[in-house]
Amino acid sequence: MPRRLILLALILCACAAPAPGIPVTLERVQDGDTVRIRLQGRSERLRLIGIDAPELAQRPWGNAARSALERTLQGRRLRLEFDRDRQDRYGRLLGWLWAEGSGRPTLVNAELVRAGQAYVYARSPLRHRAELEAAEREARTARRGVWGPDGPRERPSEYRRRR
Question: Is 92 a catalytic residue?
Fold first, then answer.
């Protein structure tokens, strides 16, 4: 009987669905919510949809967000999932980035919010909005990162507006 259970578990693990989307390769992390990727042979800038990380000039929060994104992506296979809008007004791709590794795929956008390294930034209905909002509630309750007692005084969107 235990052998059958082990065999069933191996079959289920082998059949686990990969993350949705298109395989991409990370070229580099630009800041806490933007990366450069290789997509179908082309180098592209990707803005992680639904989140807004502190600007690099919002020290130390911007650097912390970029470092968190680098750690989250390091050594993992990545997949890009598009939502309704594929590009922003600056020509960057907009998408959901999934990281595969040991265990089930991780939605990177939500991981950064859950870690307190980014805010939810959703102006329109988004495919994974509920997951982002749950991650932000979790980060706020735990007072992680930007939600901590020494967090930034203003959100990145407010900071950009003042500049």
Answer: yes
Q: Counting Cβ atoms within 10 Å, is residue 38 exposed (0-12), middle (13-18) or buried (19+)?
A: middle
Query: Which member of 66, 79, 92, 114 is catalytic?
Result: 92
User: What are the chain's domains?
Assistant: 21-162 (2.40.50.90)
* pLDDT attached to residue 10: 47
Instruction: Read off the pLDDT of residues 126-162 as tens digits, 9 standing for 90 and up.
Output: 889 999 999 999 999 999 999 999 999 899 999 999 8
Q: Could you say which of 44, 47, 111, 131 is catalytic?
A: 47
